[in-house]
Amino acid sequence: MAQGRPNTDEKMNIVIAGHVDHGKSTIIGRLLADTDSLPKGKLAQVQETCRRNSKPFEYAFLLDALKDEQSQGITIDAARIFFKTAKRHYLIIDAPGHIEFLKNMVTGASHAEAALLVIDAEEGVRENSRRHGYMLSMLGITQMVVLVNKMDLMGYRQEVFNSIVREYTAFLDGIGLTAQAFLPVTGMEGGNIASLSEKMPWYNGPTVLAAMDCFRKEPPPVDKPFRMPVQGVYKFTKAGDKRRIIAGTVDTGSVAVGDEIIFYPSGKRSTVKSLECFNTEPLAGYFAGSAASFTLEQQIYIARGQLAARADQPAPHVSKRLRVNLFWMGKKPMEQGKDYILKVGTVKEPVRIETIISVMDASDLSSARKKDKIEHHDVAECVLCCQHAVAFDAIDAIAATGRFVIVDDYEIRGGGIIREAMPDEQQQMRQQVMQRNLKWTGSNIGRERRWERYNQKAALILVTGKRNVGKKTLARAIEQRLFADGKTVYFMGIANVLYGVDADIKKPGSDERHRPEHLRRLAEVSNILLDAGVILIVTAIGLTQQELEIIQNVVDSDLIETIWLGGDPTDIDFAMTVPNLNNLDETLDNIKALLQNKGIIFKP
């Protein structure tokens, strides 16, 4: 049944989910055939192939056949299917039904505006049916139609359909989700897919296509605060081009020339100078859903992973601690004390479980209970603690920046939503740094121009270790080696700060109590020297990871390299360890090689 040419340019993304073998592929194949979305002759070709191989034809075979034609420009692959109705264009995101592929739903369904959930009339509601429903709820997808497929296998009996409707409705009620409709369908026969089936006269609701056309198209969230995760920063040098272009996709809101932008969590700010585009008319602005690129009036150093927001709108949260709802799909449990990678927007940040508040099984919504780990298919409310502060929004404020995934061993093993930001011990310090950045008077000479002039990148080399291991000896030797090589370098012992900038708090017996403030002030002095393009070498006794994070709150963390001298290191994340200074020349060669590999100084 052809639906004709779309009369609008409206597009909608829909995720289709369901337990393995419940008939998703058959329904997708039927939708393609009944909307004339297949390449010309493809249906007849697949039917003839089945006939020659004495194999019963199934509409699911159409997807397999189309996968083989990707090289010929067919816009269908294993997970993204395009077709159209008279109302709009659709992109179907196929979320594989087997439990081992549930992780694909976390990334696939997060881009969908509505969902079709398929349940086999013969098998009934399965564990995956409930898990998929719960994950759709977690991902904020509120528009859903349930397709009860294979009604032909159950004699088209209304009581079978009604029983599934009652059972699954009760489950959805428990997670706060309401299906817009339940449809009895027969994927193989096309019953109630594009036209109503005469074999189910007791059903007088919409067809699948009609139900899809009833989904409400959400307008782009341009009325929400501007959010753009920074994807990259690009510089062009040809013909004296000095532009630094900030690029990313606008999740919400809008941005235009003249808007003041703050980048979180760094708190750096500047004003949009120009909107960059290629081979198009000049733009008035970038809006939600746009791939954006723009330049700034004041050149500031911004890295991938920062979250851009407008200064005149509500700011995102910034914290190391997040209260979340998390769905775990790894075969091995998610455990306290182990490092994972949290991905929010474009940032990737080491993270650990701080507290597991409660856990339940999403397949049956069994009572929440206290556990010390999150097991396969558990849903947990917990507090996560990141190594560094990240920028995000709560899910009920801005969904796009309130979702995350957890990576373990290079694979997505979990995902969820952020409920709220939790306070952390460095919150006040971050506010001080943001205030500093707000009031910072920048030079007309940008940092990269200084780096080019000095033939080096600015860097803070932290030499730390236990007492009396030779930290100053090593630091001064590094300074001498780099100075002899023509580098702009300076050694600063922490005592230089303690008895100068810190004289007001340097009191007998107060060093440990004031140590965080000593380190903050040390970092502020370092930040000024780094802005001047210097390679700065600093010594400090026994830095811990938490103390390093104090410095990283003040100084761009990608400018810091840490060297641990001696044995028995703390938990600090170091770039190099030096056991002793027995062979100082070799040690200096190794440190120089480290700086070359990091791009701080350049190889000859």
Beta-strand content estimate = 25-35%
Strand element count: 27
**CATH homologous superfamily identity of the largest domain:** P-loop containing nucleotide triphosphate hydrolases
- The number of distinct structural domains comes to 4
Short description:
The chain is of the alpha/beta class and 604 residues long.
Describe the structure.
The strands form six sheets. A six-stranded mixed β-sheet has the order 2-3-1-4-5-6, with helices on both faces. Strands 7-8-13-11-10-14 form a six-stranded antiparallel β-barrel. Helix 12 (511-531) crosses helix 13. Strand 2 and strand 3 (89-94) form a beta hairpin. The chain is α/β, with parallel strands linked by helices and 604 residues long. Helix content is 26%, strand content 29%. The chain folds into four domains: 11-213, Rossmann fold, CATH 3.40.50.300; 228-310, Elongation Factor Tu (Ef-tu), domain 3 (Beta Barrel), CATH 2.40.30; 317-424, Elongation Factor Tu (Ef-tu), domain 3, CATH 2.40.30; 445-597, P-loop containing nucleotide triphosphate hydrolases (Rossmann fold, 3-Layer(aba) Sandwich), CATH 3.40.50. The N and C termini lie far apart (69 Å). The radius of gyration is 29 Å and the shape is elongated. It is built from 14 helices and 27 strands.
List keywords for this structure.
alpha/beta; Rossmann fold; Elongation Factor Tu (Ef-tu), domain 3; elongated
